[in-house]
């Protein structure tokens, strides 16, 4: 929906080793995306009754801040000891922004959404969507003047989802 500026474009896509989706973003930029569900043959929208979408590893590099805004969800779940700030935004539909508050690196990245450590669960937020064929996501990487980038990891159901259902 908006211009996308990666730091390392090769990191964006589906990581077959860990089975996560990944969007690599350059520091000081943001991108607004729309995820939609379409029939493979007709390309007509497909309404999904229920599905989950989880954002993982919401931490940041030195002086940076990661922000994720998600819209059109039924509800979201994060642990009571989550290491992020959640802000419910006013508007005509549900939307909330999640802001990293902890510095981190690749050493705590998840390798499986079905076996998250307590630390990995504290850096994740899971969304339930109902009766929709699309949702929107805004990713922001506020500058720490490092000239670097960060990865935003995502997937469907996770250990966090099962902990909170």
Description:
By secondary structure, the chain is mostly beta strands. It has one domain. The chain is 7% helix and 44% strand. The protein is built from two helices and eleven strands; from the N terminus they run ββββββββαβββα. It has helices at 118-122, 159-164, and strands at residues 13-15, 20-26, 29-36, 48-56, 65-71, 75-77, 84-88, 95-100, 125-132, 134-142, 149-155. The strands form two sheets. Strands 1-2-11-4-9-6 form a six-stranded antiparallel β-sheet. Strands 3-10-5-8-7 form a five-stranded antiparallel β-sheet, with no helix packed on it. A hairpin with a 4-residue loop joins β1 (13-15) and β2 (20-26). The longest helix has 6 residues, at 159-164. It starts with 12 loop residues before the first strand and ends with a helix. The model has no long low-confidence stretch (mean pLDDT 90).
State Rg. Answer: 15 Å
Low-confidence stretches: none
Structural class: mainly beta
Helical segment tally? 2
Helix content: under 10%
Total beta-strand segments: 11
Integer count of domains = 1
Characteristic terms for this protein:
165 residues; mainly beta; six-stranded antiparallel beta sheet; five-stranded antiparallel beta sheet
